[in-house]
Amino acid sequence: MGGVTSSMAAKFAFFPPNPPSYKFVTDEATGLLLLDPFPHRENVDVLKLPTRRGTEIVAVYVRYPMATSTLLYSHGNAADIGQMYELFVELSIHLRVNIMGYDYSGYGQSLGKPSEHNTYADIEAAYKCLEENYGAKQEDIILYGQSVGSGPTLDLAARLPRLRAVVLHSPILSGLRVMYPVKRSYWFDIYKNIDKIPLVKCPVLVIHGTCDEVVDCSHGKQLWELCQEKYEPLWLKGGNHCNLELYPEYLRHLKKFILTVEKSPSRRFNSRRSTDRIEHSRRSTDCFEAPRKSTDRRDKPRKSVDRPEKLKTSEYKFNNIDKLDKFKISFDQIERSRRSVEYHEKSRRSIDLQLEKARKSVDWLDRIRAG
């Protein structure tokens, strides 16, 4: 019986687009790997990565000038990196980060067959590429898992103690819990995120739509409760499983989170409000507006998990970004300014004293500007 249930769970878990949304080609003139039909971009690399399980997966790396963080994005079901490509480019621009996205084994033009353990090997291959090919350090990497992608994301995050952060987008408690309201973990279940989330040592942001009919919002709620280092969650009113990127609040909140975790660990949480704010978020009107049904129970036939809606590229332009954003000064710019002042003025004792006081001041940012 257990074997049958495990087989059923595996079949429900994976829906690779058929046919894939892109073709994998090599440019004859340059020898570069390209995704057809997308035009070549100078800041985008297309890669083939070998995995420890003997398969070869396709990945894309989007480079942002002077980025201090790299997002390793594990997409949801019924999607491949061809469908995610424009979103990756837009997120890189607006969040000012490098992004690596990859296709699981059996998805897109990646070889092999989709399985739970293959996805673990797939994300490890992408992470290894970031370290070895792009010089990314563990403490500079943010793991981003969408729906089923929360499985490989949390499996890796639980084994990396110095990660910068984790983002869980419409995450699942486990594969079996999406279909049945079970109260314990069984050996044949897949993606046991509920058991792995307490092992994650870095800040975790959870984003979930309150009207998600594929993965109930209670999954995100419970995972957030189990986090060691909670960050203010985002419960999007009316959001479903496939449209959260279209909400202006999505990008604003995600950007705020990244700016927070990019600060040095010693000051990272000084700029955040007290834990009272986090406690208040549990009672926020953005949470559940009506008593929810029994945990994780589905009343309707289950849809193909994570099937993306056909959205125009223009919908990813995020035109509703807060206009004040353009006036923000990045932490890197402040650090460069401080080092410049210290270098050119280090012989002046009075300036050194002012800088020393400014570092200790609560209003550190304003005093650096004044200096």
UniProtKB/TrEMBL annotation:
Q: Where would you find the membrane-spanning parts of this chain?
A: none
User: What region holds the Serine aminopeptidase S33 domain?
Assistant: 70-175
| Top-level division of the source organism's lineage | Eukaryota
Q: Which Pfam families match?
A: Hydrolase_4 (PF12146)
Where is there biased composition of kind Basic and acidic residues? 273-309
Q: Where is this region: Disordered?
A: 270-309
This chain belongs to the protein called Serine aminopeptidase S33 domain-containing protein
